[in-house]
Amino acid sequence: MARTTTRNPLLLAAAGLALLAAGGAGWGGWSWYAAAHDESAAYAATRDEVLSAGEQAVQNLNTLDHRDLRRGLDTWRDSATGDLLTQLTAGRPEFERQIQQAKTVTTAKVLSGAVTELDTRTGRASVMVALRVTVTPPKGAPNAKESRMLGELTRTPQGWKLSALGQAPVGSAATG
């Protein structure tokens, strides 16, 4: 007489679930590894670093208090590199004189910012930053103005620094 073996359906189901769990864990591990070693993740982290450095530097160069002029101008110097640093250094004595005479306090607040260009290979980037700049004269009410600034950044051993800064054009320059 032939003997028939019956398999326990619960044992088969448990084995199937264990196999699925092992496969899911393997896929999840591979996905995590691939994401952690993906160049786009490193690029995104660099973009975030550039945006943060750019916003801070633009804010720094639009903030100055005549009562603590040396510290403010040192912050400007520490935020810049290249041609911009050269311009700030060369113009510092005249600028100090003008601010001491005007006795103004200028503060900037970043409203928004974006990286418009990033080349990690060459260490160059561009940002656009919207600011609200408030100038407080020695007498009278503070005057606030919103502006957009375009900045170029260069990677230095100390991090990303502004190498150029200017006003963003407003409106259309060309007419049909």
From TrEMBL:
Kindly provide the name given to this protein in its UniProt entry.
Mce-associated membrane protein
**Record keywords, A-Z:** Membrane
| InterPro entries on file | NTF2-like_dom_sf (IPR032710)
Database matches in SUPFAM superfamilies: NTF2-like
* GO cellular component terms attached to this protein's record: membrane
* Transmembrane stretches, start-end: none
Q: What is the lineage of its organism?
A: Bacteria, Bacillati, Actinomycetota, Actinomycetes, Kitasatosporales
**Subcellular location, in the record's words?**
Membrane
Q: Would you indicate the residue range of the signal peptide? A: none
